[in-house]
Amino acid sequence: MNEMPILLKSLKRLPVPHAPVWMMRQAGRYLSEYRALKEKYSFLEMCRSVELATEVTLQPIRIINPDAAIVFADILLPLEAMGIEIDFAPGPIIKNPITSSTDITSLKTQDVSKTNGYVFEIVKEVKRNLCLETQSPRKAVLGFAGAPWTLACYLIAQGPHKHYLGTNVYAREHKKSFHLLMDKLTTLIEDYLIGQVEAGADAVQLFDTWGGNLGAKDYEELSLPYVQRIVQTIQSRGCPLVFYVNGSNHLLPQMLASGADCLSIDWRTDLKEAIKQYGERVCFQGNLDPTLLYGSKDEIRARTKEMLSAVETQTGYIANLGHGILSTTPREHAKYFIDVVHEGFLANA
Ligand code: CP3
Question: Residue 28: CB within 6 Å of ligand 1?
């Protein structure tokens, strides 16, 4: 019962019988059990109810059997501690976006447990239930947060700019207030992740989904220093951190410089090459293209085996998709992906 979760073993580079595997966005609309609850409750109601969020977190554990449960929440939730009003339709909506430097100086700096303490309760409940429901080895509980840059992308009013490029424009035009915003977001995210670690998260993932919008030099100035601060804070609490950047093929040296324990990459990066170049210094997570799960089982099998064959060390690696599972993915294909990884590194097609 108390054996170390296989996902933690991989992060600590201990030997594992198969790669630990989970899927980003593994709780959600591709599961009919989730959709049934969604008919009765809004997304935010589900996030804010400890009972419902725990149930939704555990649904994929029972149905597709991954090695980790990621707490059901959203990267935007902790922004409420700053006085930001959010909604989902289903994409994120910020009701009071940032349009001026006064909006940034007047952001609230209250204790995140006041607005988001329920997330810490969900971590505890998920962990308690995983201990009761699953056999040894226990499955890992993952906490998460958005990286400051990505949160700034949602917070800053974008004007005419598509794909959150308005944030790049704002950061260059209003350097001082941009960095003040990043500093405030970093402090918020540190406290929010510490709350999850103290509640029992085995590891946490930081999502810099929009980091790939920046070139390497700008990433080093506008996002990386804040990520480094968060990584140090979390690691000093003894918790490993997985760092995800979408569209990060040009940012691997910067991701390495974050100091994270594990880099989560998408399918546009060659996993074998990445491991060859950086694998002795950092663990990797990824990187199957989520659209491949719409293919036949034979194709899923072949591409999953190909991904696993890139990993020669048999440790220091977590299997995952390169981004979130798409909402119309056939569930039996999601399960098949997990099953193929569970066969082990060496089993033949
Ligand atoms: O991985 C999991 O299973 C945990 C749950 C989770 C959600 N959001 C639930 C969610 C996680 C880890 C996130 C993180 C998140 N949220 C990110 C970073 C990861 C990534 O995808 O790049 C980002 C950028 C967001 C912001 C966000 N929230 C978007 C863009 C959307 C719309 C997505 C969509 O598919 O429509 C959301 C809403 C959201 N977050 C849903 C879920 C299950 C859909 C809500 C619904 O069911 O109506």
Answer: yes
Residue 347 confidence (pLDDT): 47
Q: How far apart are CA 66 and CA 62, in angstroms?
A: 9
* Ligand 1 contacts CB of residue 64 (under 6 A): no
Could you tell me if the CB of 87 is within 6 A of ligand 1?
no
pTM of the model: 0.96
pLDDT (0 to 100) of residue 314: 77
Residue 42 CA: which ligand 1 atom is closest?
48
Please check whether residue 167 is in contact with residue 150, taking contact to mean a CB–CB distance below 8 angstroms. no
SS (H, E, C) the chain: CCCCCHHHHHHCCCCCCCCCECCCCCCCCCCHHHHHHHHHCCHHHHHHCHHHHHHHHHHHHHHHCCCEEECCCCCCHHHHHHCCCEEECCCEEECCCECCHHHHHCCCCCCHHHHHHHHHHHHHHHHHHHHHHCCCCCCEEEEEEECHHHHHHHHECCCCCCCCHHHHHHHHHCHHHHHHHHHHHHHHHHHHHHHHHHCCCCEEEEEECCHHHCCHHHHHHHCHHHHHHHHHHHHCCCCCEEEEECCCHHHHHHHHHCCCCEEECCCCCCHHHHHHHHCCCCEEEEEECHHHHHCCHHHHHHHHHHHHHCCCCCCCEEEEECCCCCCCCCHHHHHHHHHHHHCCCCCCC
List average pLDDT for each run of 10 residues in the chain, which is 349 residues long. 86 94 97 97 98 98 97 98 96 96 97 98 96 80 98 95 95 97 98 98 98 98 98 98 98 98 98 96 98 98 96 90 98 98 72
Residue type for 115, please?
A: T
Residue whose Cα lies nearest atom 7 of ligand 1: it is 74
Could you give the C-alpha distances from 229 to 97, 192, 263, in angstroms and in order?
A: 25, 14, 16
